[in-house]
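User: Quick sanity check before I run a bigger batch. Here is a single chain. Can you write out its predicted 3D structure?
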Amino acid sequence: MEINQFIPSLTPGDAASNDALAIRAILRKNGFKSNIYAKFIHPRMLWYARPYFLYRGNRQNISIYHFAIGGLQFSDFILKLPDIKILRYHNITPPEYFEKYDSKLSFICRKGLIELKGFKRHFVLGMGDSSFNCLAMEHEGIGKTEVLPVLIDFSKYAEYDKELNRKLGGSDSKKIIFVGRIAPNKKQEDLIRVFDHYHRKFNPNSTLYLIGQKQIAPYVHELEELVTTLGLSDTVVFTGKVSDKEVNTYYRNADVFVCLSEHEGFCVPLVESMFFNIPIIAYESSAIKDTLGEAGILLQEKDAESIAKLIVRVTEDSSFREEIIKRQKKRLPVFQSDCIEQKLMKIIHEIQDSKYNTPG
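Assistant: Done. Predicted structure follows.
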């Protein structure tokens, strides 16, 4: 029996792609023949995946389908396979967030949500990386779900960019960071407004780093105009897409991580912030609570004054800061590979034992 994975696109730095690679490593470690098949394979990833059309199905095999976007004519291939199928759901951003900025992306997300509705007759199990994602699958009729957090390779965080580290470390400016592609659901505009309040009223010696790919040009332009209007051009930095070494360096030098996103299926940067001992302030939306648990500071509303005061306290009150970090350290082992490996193998063995033998 083989356990293979299917993903629309295998891309460097992508959370779903990293998850697939980590799952493959665990499966091979436990004696299974396992490969990754993809429709789009980035040139740097050619060694790690095969074109999906080379795969020939087998009723004895298990296929894991990583699903986070629609409209790519990829699902039809998966659904026709005779294999035992698991849906690895990373969530789809509500298309409404993109309608104003990117009609094509909005359509793709809408198509994905329609596809999800038709999956219930095909998958024996929905494997979500958060309870939020499992509830979304259950809502669409996939009655059997299990939570398996995103698998994260913590070893990659040891590397950093020495030149950037010297630059950031040589500044006494308070560094507020958010890591994630520049996209409307991430609500970077709310973070910019909070930073404006903090910077003007509490600490003019501060910088906001928005670390991530500039994915949607009209939205990026809107944010840049907001920054200019607020007079923050010298203190709000859009890094664009950065290397693993560079993002690790920003984490190493950050004073606080602030997330005001309104839709996350998991949010890997929350776990990364825990790893780097950066206090987290996050708006409680979507899967944020699932990932943070009792760690960090969860916000019930986006009040700029209140959040700015929290940033002040987190960066200036050492005992308060250490208490937050202590809670985050307590939460971090949930995401260690050994813990997740045990859960994954339990799921696989239960499928082999026919606990999950019918779709729906």
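The chain has two domains: 3-151, 156-334.

User: Great, the batch can go ahead then.
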